[in-house]
Specification:
Chains B, D: Keywords: FAD, Flavoprotein, Oxidoreductase. By secondary structure, chain A is α+β, with helices and mostly antiparallel strands. Chain A is built from 11 helices and 10 strands. Helices cover 45% and strands 13% of the residues of chain A. The longest helix of chain A has 31 residues. Classes of the chains: A alpha+beta, B alpha+beta.
């Protein structure tokens, strides 16, 4: 066992650290992390950041160098996530494009697709979103009903997507639609690259419980795609979507790193806030809670490193990523909820009136989605049970 | 031996249900939180007309002269719809305190107006970091002739802008417990009110600033420097009421989760068929019924002023507060993505539950109170054994 | 709401209390509760107690007076359970006979059956056990495979029962066997009254994890019953077994009362045992645990009273008994487990070497069966879900 | 960056697995607890022949000179079969303490014999109410010429009847921490041993009474009155070892629960198809892997004597202790009635887990230790961040 990094890896880290110092928005490192709330401001902010990352060579770090990437190793990618988590860097708006669509096109896209899209993904010229979930297919993703019907050289797409992150800022959508109805739900799905700026595509914001707008409904009314916009084989979109997923190399790494950071902030909170005139951290009951959360946070982090080591040894990631996701999402909820508890009755104050720091209330509410998005905890448990432990599948109804 | 609502109480329950339904049910908190504050006036008027404000006011002041148990079903129904407004503060806190400790003049004026619904009350208690402790009362009342002059700041005053009178614990002496309760009428004083943005937008939170506000000494409720003790007695009623209110919320959660689980289909099955979902709702139901039993008992203990009343309320408050949070959380999970939307009602319960977590004490504080009571008096009381 | 009892009910309680003072085994009330460990000693002890109960009129208190019962009301029965729990009275060895078989025979038995069995049940002359569970039918009770085949005037019974409490001390068995195999598992079961002292019946002890022998396997090899031993209709034994269950009027009352008592002992334990020279009860963390358990214990008790009130109002018990069972069994485990935790490292010592009191170790281990016997917690949750909440049944496979 | 067993460690794991299987696997604790104590001799001899006793003994005394990480897979395997015997006390406690603090003569004698398996060790620490605290050390060692004369009583001495030497913390001075460690050889002293009936019959518990037992001063391990500090250092190794041992138990539980859930049929389905069972096993698995990660890390921290070693062990110990109990409980539940029988193996894990709960400190104590470490040194160490 060895927790050290090679000199080269540490050099990679140092470079990134320095770059972040030089390039993060003003005041960001000091904790003044403000992102505009309006669509236009947000778009500009995120696009600027995406562009900076690209210019610095820090967008698509795992991409081959010939496409503008850094060709980073898996461990370098992990270091990248560590450092980004450490400074709570702004999200990469084009994460879908950079982490999944781009690599997928590089792997199985046509030459035209590569020419047309890949560069614009990395430099952030075109923002991508992902059209998977539908109102009636959430956990049961393969039950999707959005249809694409061929008419001449066009595919006419009708249906509705939901939970499409950043759709309101996106230019393109990696969309799954049903092109054949054979009764086998995993067959007959096709992956399309769809232009978001066309008449047949309408985006409607979803206001979430934290009063934010990240998710959207996307309505497709005779939206159009062309033969050239199909990724992989017709009717084999399910496989393509799995290819896409396989490019998610670092899994929930960033979240896990962030959580360990948030834990430190939690300790800070408990050291600062007082009850009966004494810092909370001196309260034996609080100490128990914090000790428990500490062991869990570290355990989660160490689990991640163990799974990472296995991925490196085997050359591919195993289903253990589901355990990271399950553990991370639930611990995240626990930590944010506890941070609210520590704040006492003023925990009800939020936004500009927040008593301690408005991020706590936002993060608390945001955390409620952790165990739903990207596969619910119930689905993750089934994956662990069936794929890791070999327990029976739920009845196929 | 009978442990259930009696017929009269059940009648109140049905009636409350009807009123709330007729006024829009969960649309009430939704409208209110979107700024349509007139729904609150409308509801208040409706309830007042039916005599709901005077339930705990004695008959001589125009009330029904009932005890806190009668409020239980009403408060549950209000909790079911996350109803905004100072009903609890007025009926479960101010009314009994005034009955017990008000001067004849105070009773005459305040209870009569309270019973008709003309006068609404709130509690302006918390300051600074929001801790519920005598040492945290720093709004000063300086004697000046026949008046107290108040200066300082109260926070998290529920619906201060909607009510007519605030009950304000103020510091009137040097030692920690030298606290007095004052009745501060908004129409005869100049208070600075400032809305505080609350996660639970169905309970409007207001910061109240006192800039040398003069209040006649006749507005003193109870004895000078005896305010903390009175407050604690008042808070018992408030807590028991909050418990019933939260139980109502839990009940609604169980219902909506069950309904959603019965109708939402995934993998060709209503999701309620999956034990992960099914048994989660069972856990909610178990907590609901245990919570309800404890809240009934707290109400009963309060009504009969039993020896174990403090423990009874502490048991209810500690268990229900946590169970409500858990249920509200799990309800979001069961609703999946939809539970995360503003459009669905799940978040009303989630926010109400979490923001009540530490209101007037944390679950830990109340557990400590249970054990305090247990150790000082080991004999089981009340429940015949 | 009203927690008081009528003068008559209190008189009933006083009588019973006095009777217990006069009749409990020597030293029992002082906490010296010793039951012989050997079969013969146990049989004698239990039979003596059963006889005493009968002579005092305290066996079968809900039975009609004409059959030697007390004709007690439901509330008196509850008082009975309270008082028995208060003194931790020895179990009634013939509980199956008295609480279930007897009342069932009185309700649907033939005249001969009543004549032959009922009196001997109450006076403890004949001890009954219940032959339900089988190795392959535990939670899925109706899947039982023990067969009864008619040969002349005899029914020949073959198969195996398991978890038969007290079978080693029993004279008779109320046994379910399959008399027809129609494919519908709830049909074709018949209820028999079987003599345990016959060649075809062999009883084998089950040693349980608490090193006790209460449960048994019962092997039926050409055991014999007669037409006259059938209860109710042939093939309708499932219905008969439900009739039997309906006579369990007070449900888990005794356990719930006992738990509230054990809670008091737990507080006593925490007040006596010390750590760092201070009584545990002064430790804020212990106080949290105890406060939590107190609220739960009281909640459970109050739930029971609420369900009881409903039963009295409706004239019959609802499915809420499943909630009492579920809550009581899990809280029981929690309390006993916590009592072990409080004892520190010496909690490992048991039997005559027990550091605090040997019952704690026995009860801790015994409590592990609470959530299994009489319908597992998983089954209880399904009942609550399906019968109280109206959630979908598990797929019928 | 590599966080996994290396090849050598994996080799040890496979080898241990083979030995234990060949000796009867879970039949070993079963036979032992039924009084067939010879299985322990047999196993001990087998392990000694393969050099397992000297793994942590330096090469100059005939050992392999490895660190505690090498023991991790071995201890896990032993935990998988709830193996009885003083392996942990000998190899993870006595050996490193002797290496670090033994005199040359002590090392020469004890380490050499330990490495060959000739000499087995146990820790005679607890007294009275079993509390692990310096104030609870009351076995007195009175100086008499070149000897200490011991009187008093130790309890819960694991396998005292099987070992050759006891490491005994004794009181040698007046102030609370005036404790010294003595090496007490059974063959040169007269100790009274009395078996104590233990719920976990796979760890034989013995009461050891010292009736004016004379021990030469040369048997002092480390400095006089410095014993508590040494003991705490020794207990670190012991705790890390217990953690690995418990992780092995948890792993076996997950395996057997999974196997049972895959084969036991009710309602026409393997019960593992029901999410109530299925997800319970997933929870076990999650706890197992988190526990394992923490125990690996504890071993690593110990081997490298990192700054956070105390915290690392406390994290592992607190989480694993509780997770083991939970898993062992749930395992009984999943096995239904069969889990409640003596015949099935479930109870071995249940009893081992519960009786280790407070051994050398409770989970609460270890959580307190975590926070102590955290607050005194807020910087994250070791895990590269």
């Amino acid at each position: 066992m060895d927790f050290s990094f090679t000199t080269e890896e540490e050099k990679f880290r140092d470079e990134l650290r320095q770059w972040l110092v030089d390039n993060l928005p003003d005041g960001w490192l000091e904790g003044n992390r403000v992102i505009p709330r309006d669509n236009e401001g947000q778009r500009r902010f995120f696009k600027d950041w995406q562009r900076k990352l690209f210019d610095g060579g820090w967008s698509g770090i795992s991409w081959p160098k010939e496409y503008g990437g850094k060709g980073a190793s898996l461990l370098e990618e992990v270091i990248y996530e560590q450092e980004m988590a450490r400074v709570k860097a702004p999200p990469q708006i084009n994460v879908i494009g950079v982490a999944m669509v781009g690599p997928t096109l590089l792997q199985i896209g046509t030459d035209e697709q590569k020419d047309k899209y890949v560069n614009k993904i990395l430099n952030g010229e075109e923002i991508w979103c992902q059209g998977y979930s539908e109102p009636n297919s959430g956990s049961d993703l393969a039950a999707l009903q959005t249809s694409a019907v061929k008419k001449g050289d066009k595919w006419i797409i009708n249906g509705q997507k939901i939970w499409t992150s950043m759709a309101h800022l996106a230019d393109k959508c990696f969309l799954l639609a049903r092109t054949e109805n054979t009764g086998k739900k995993h067959h007959g799905i096709t992956a399309f690259l769809v232009d978001m700026h066309q008449e047949g595509v309408e985006t409607k914001p979803i206001r979430s419980i934290d009063d934010q707008h990240i998710f959207n409904e996307v309505f497709l009314n005779d939206a159009v795609a062309y033969e050239a916009d199909i990724v992989g084989e017709i009717n084999e979109g399910w496989k393509v979507s799995l290819t896409l997923l396989s490019h998610e190399r670092t899994g929930v790494a960033r979240q896990i790193f962030e959580l360990n950071q948030v834990f430190d902030e939690l300790v800070e909170l408990a050291s600062t806030l007082k009850k009966n005139g004494r810092p909370l951290i001196e309260n034996p009951i609080v100490r128990q809670d914090i000790g428990r959360l500490r062991a869990k946070s570290r355990g989660l982090l160490l689990n991640y490193y163990r799974n990472l080591t296995n991925s490196i040894r085997n050359g591919y990631p195993g289903p253990e990523g589901s355990m990271d996701k399950l553990g991370g999402s639930e611990l995240g909820q626990e930590i944010y909820s506890y941070a609210m508890s520590l704040q006492g009755s003023v925990n009800t104050l939020w936004k500009e009136d927040a008593a301690v720091g408005e991020e706590w209330q936002y993060d608390y509410l945001r955390s409620k989605a952790f165990t739903i998005e990207g596969g619910t905890s119930e689905i993750q448990r089934n994956i662990v049970a069936e794929r890791i432990l070999g327990l029976p599948k739920d009845i196929k109804y | 031996m009978e442990f259930a609502l009696n017929e009269e109480q059940q009648l109140f329950q049905r009636q409350t249900q009807q009123i709330i339904k007729s006024k829009g049910d969960l649309e009430i908190p939704r409208a209110y939180s979107e700024g349509k504050e007139e729904v609150l006036d409308d509801l208040w008027t409706g309830l007042a007309e039916l005599g709901y404000m005077g339930i705990t006011v004695s008959e001589s002041y125009g009330g029904l002269g009932m005890g806190p148990l009668t409020l239980v079903p009403i408060l549950e129904e209000m909790g079911r719809a996350v109803i905004p407004g100072p009903y609890i503060e007025t009926v479960s806190f101010a009314a009994p305190l005034l009955e017990k400790y008000g001067s004849t003049e105070q009773k005459e004026k305040y209870l009569t107006e309270l019973a008709t619904g003309e006068r609404k009350f709130s509690l302006a208690l918390l300051e600074g970091n929001g801790e519920y402790a005598p040492s945290n009362i720093n709004v000063r009342a300086t004697e000046k002739g026949n008046e107290y002059v108040l200066s300082g700041e109260k926070i998290l005053v529920a619906h201060a802008d909607f009510v007519d009178t605030l009950i304000v614990p103020v510091r009137t002496g040097m030692s920690e417990q030298d606290i007095s309760l004052l009745l501060v009428d908004r129409d005869s004083t100049t208070l600075q009110l400032e809305k505080q943005i609350s996660m639970d937008e169905t309970r409007k939170m207001v910061k109240v600033t006192f800039n040398d506000v003069a209040v006649p000494k006749s507005q003193l409720l109870g004895q000078e420097n005896a305010g903390w003790e009175l407050l604690e007695i008042g808070v018992r009623g408030l807590n028991a009421a909050l418990c019933s209110n939260m139980v109502g919320g839990m009940e609604r959660i169980v219902e909506t989760a069950t309904e959603y689980a019965n109708t939402r289909v995934q993998f060709g099955q209503p999701i309620g068929r999956f034990q992960a979902v099914k048994h989660k709702i069972v856990e909610m139901k178990m907590n609901l019924e245990t919570g309800r039993s404890l809240s009934y008992y707290a109400g009963w203990a309060l009504e009969n002023n039993t020896e174990d009343v403090v423990e009874a309320i502490a048991m209810a408050r500690s268990l229900i507060t946590e169970a409500f949070i858990k249920s509200a959380n799990d309800n979001v999970q069961i609703h999946g993505g939809m539970g995360f939307t503003w459009e669905f009602d799940c978040h009303f319960f989630l926010k109400r539950a979490k923001t009540l977590e530490n209101y007037l004490g944390s679950p830990e504080d109340y557990r400590e109170e249970i054990v305090n009571a247990l150790v000082s008096d080991k004999e089981s009381v009340a429940v015949g054994r």
